[in-house]
Hints:
Helix content is 71%, strand content 0%. The protein is mostly helical. It has one domain. The protein is globular, with a radius of gyration of 16 Å. The termini are far apart. The relative contact order is 0.18.
Amino acid sequence: MHPSIDRLDDRLDEAWETLRSIPALDRIFYTASEAADFSVLWHTLGVVQAIVEDDPKIALALSAALGVESALINGPVKSLFKRSRPVHAGERPHTLRQPKTTSFPSGHASAAMVAAAMLSRRSGGPLWYGLAGVVALSRIHVRIHHGSDVAGGLIAGVALGAAARRLADAWH
């Protein structure tokens, strides 16, 4: 990344450090980060919404959108940038899977925005986007991503989510 982006990331990480000493926030962010691994959280919520709404197309559309998002972000996009993840030598308050992919953009953040766009098609927009924000920010808190990785993931996720939503609305 550009040195000015690296400096901004360093400043954000330093500012965020005070939040990392709050056990309740540690638990929230580590849980959110882990629950969203492989988009399990989002697929589960899609199935629940499909059951409640008695419409299996909800879960199918969400899973298809997340599949496309993952293939694009974790494949060619991350390969294009090849950014290293943040280095953290200290102990973490909770265990967490260490991803094997590169850092930019955050796949958790992009998947969260795609899921929020799809889940909010019926109702609950603020709830879904709020949960997506918690998942995205969790990646900074747990030191798996730089702030700019999360920002890039959010931008990509908004674009992919808007496209997926338009396709799903046309299909349904």
